[in-house]
What we know:
Layout: H1 10-19, E1 24-25, H2 26-36, H3 45-57, E2 61-67, E3 73-79, H4 81-107
Antiparallel strand pairs: 1-3, 2-3
Helix pairs in contact: 1-2, 1-4
Amino acid sequence: MAKMELLQGTLDLLVLQVLSAGPMHGFGIAQRIHLLSQDVLRVEEGSLYPALYRMEQRGWIKAEWGQSENNRRAKFYSLTRVGVKQLETEKTSWNKLALAIGQVLQGS
């Protein structure tokens, strides 16, 4: 199956959803999205880390230094209470958008 680019605005939703399962470092977040999408979605570092920084600045996630599985120092990201609320907002918006697109596709 071909790799697909993420739609603009979906990266925050996907990252927040992955982090809802617990803290994770950046590379782990990218791997999890790739795995959960059954190898369809790929998040590039050049998109992921600016998004993580932006979400941290907005208070949706927090970062703490820790040790990765291979004993390297890594930043681990986790959701804040504000991030949990934002995830619900993002899911609602996505569901409305997906429904609207589906309706247009069925109507053609």
